[in-house]
Amino acid sequence: MQNYSTTAATAIGFISIVLWGTLALLTKLTDGAIPPLQLMAMTFFLAYLGMQIRWLYRGESGFRYLKQPKKVWLVGIGGYLSYHFCYFAAMARAPAVDVSLIAYLWPLFIVLFSALLPGENLKVKHTLGAVLALTGCALIITQGGNGLSSEYAAGYLFAAACALIWSSYSVLTRLISQVSTGIVGWYCLFTAVLAAIAHFIFEQTVLPETSIQWIGIVGLALGPMGLAFFTWDYGMKRGNIQLLGVLSYSAPLISTLLLVLFTDELLTKTLLVACLLIVIGSVIAGVKFEKKAHIKT
Hints:
GO cellular component, one term: plasma membrane
Membrane topology: Multi-pass membrane protein
Number of strands: 0
Subcellular location: Cell membrane
Radius of gyration: 20 Å
Keywords: Cell membrane, Membrane, Transmembrane, Transmembrane helix
Organism: Neptuniibacter caesariensis
Helix content: over 70%
Largest sheet: none
Number of helices: 13
Strand content: under 5%
């Protein structure tokens, strides 16, 4: 039976999923004018600054979180940097819709990989819920598209790497649950520095020109590329990892609904069916089946 603390941690982890649902809308505010590595460096650095302000408010510097084994840094910085590198590489080599579909296999992988963790059991309801939610996610992303094409094979491989990297990072986080979530602040800083170095090597710097672009950048740093990583770390370490994996499929649904509300995107029948599949999958994965006691006569 799931205790209160596990339920609370799962709810905190779900905050990340909601925030990731705002990613497309906030990115749209930047007008696509900011190079991806530069945007990554800016948002992760702002996320670090936010955590540094919190540390100072609490009367600490955050340096105590730096004393960690090498495996902690390998999991954290390796996960952040390699995931985003593969994501941008995939986007440059294949259509965005195809990349999103393949990369969004990571929630299903989380559900499956969680069976390898000590004390975790993968149940049929988790797998069934994940598959239904994945189907709904695929409907949202493809919107009745024509499928994948072999000419984008390199991009598909990078997208598949995204799914494996983020799911592996998420599950491995469980194995270092004794490490405070405060370490994520340093993950953000080091990732920002490495992204900035790559930006200056491979990209041309573009300064934001409008207040709307700055709103998008700050919004990304505070939400899907900031706070979301802290709440995800907490949820993965202390929450119901299988349920969070299935609930992650609601991120593209939230994203699409926000675009429908605030842009010229249209609400379609496909979106409604996808919504139903994701909700049903999440309910199946999260419902508790109680065994009834048999009374002997």
